[in-house]
Amino acid sequence: MRSKGCENRSVSSSFASRTYRAEGVVLRTYKLGEADRIIVFLTRDHGQVRAVAKGVRRTSSKFGSRLEPYMTVDLQLVAGRNLDVVTQAQTKGAYGHGIAADYGRYTAAAAIAETAERLTDADGESSGAQYNLIVGALSALSRGLHAPELILDSYLLRALATAGWAPSFTDCARCGTPGPHTAFSAPLGGGVCPDCRPPGAASPAPESMELLAALLSGNWGTADASSPQSRREAAGLVASYLQWHLERVVKSLKLVERQ
User: Fold this and answer.
1) Are 153 and 238 a contacting pair, CB within 8 Å?
2) What was the pLDDT predicted at 6?
3) Domain 98-255, what fold?
4) Three-class DSSP category at 132
5) What is the rounded distance in angstroms from the CA atom of residue 157 to the CA atom of residue 182?
6) DSSP-derived 3-state class of residue 119
7) Which of these, 179, 142, 145, 162, lies nearest to 216 by C-alpha position?
8) Which part of the chain is the DNA replication/recombination mediator RecO N-terminal domain (predicted)?
9) Is the pLDDT of residue 257 over 60?
């Protein structure tokens, strides 16, 4: 017959073997029971993680404020059958406060987080690159480095490129003919030449295509100097490109303020 001491050591060993650390950003939270929350993280090394944070809705919780959306945290978790459990959380980037104080930043962050959740999964493939992109975008939003809608559209284009759907806004996306070109097709991958242009392709202004190329490459001098008209047209093309490849609507985009 096994002693209680042996049983306790076995339980402790099992608990330790299931414990791991992760650096993650909070994408979404759900209420669970009276005091708990389910937190959806995008982590640097483990992909998307869903975990229970017990007691975080109580006023006495020591790390409830650290697990709000758009915060980046250093986590200790215990792997579970369906959901992991958060046992420790230390703040790395308190971006949520600066974002929540401004409606334009908040709606852009919501669209960024929803897209990141759609583009990533639990296998960790390319999670490091996607993690760096979203943290960079949230940091820029919280500090007000650029207009929120420009940060959003730049993030969306880069995230899609990292996921394997890199658009082209200079050379023809289908045949590679040097551009710039005056037609845009989301199914074909961006700008297209007259020979490759399909029926129904959009005909954006050259300034809008230049802005899209700047947002993808991180040319903020050109992006910040763009006109409201170019930003609106470019945003529509980004949204169509995003939703074509995701094959679903990103609901948060409807709430984003556009100049």
Assistant:
1) yes
2) 47
3) de novo design (two linked rop proteins) (1.20.1440)
4) helix
5) 19
6) helix
7) 162
8) 19-92
9) yes
| pLDDT for the residue numbered 10 | 46
How far is Cα 72 from Cα 163, in angstroms, rounded to an integer? 22
Q: Which amino acid is at 208?
A: S
Cα end-to-end distance, the chain, whole Å: 74
Q: List residues bridging with 24 in a β-sheet.
A: 43, 73
The boundaries of every CATH 1.20.1440.120 domain in the chain are: 98-255
CATH fold for domain 4-93: OB fold (Dihydrolipoamide Acetyltransferase, E2P) (2.40.50)
φ/ψ of 41, rounded to 5, equals -110, 150
Q: How do residues 3-23 score in pLDDT, each as one tens digit?
A: 545 444 444 555 567 899 999
Q: pTM score, two decimals?
A: 0.90
Instruction: Count Cα neighbours of 211 within 13 Å in the Cβ-side half-sphere.
Output: 25
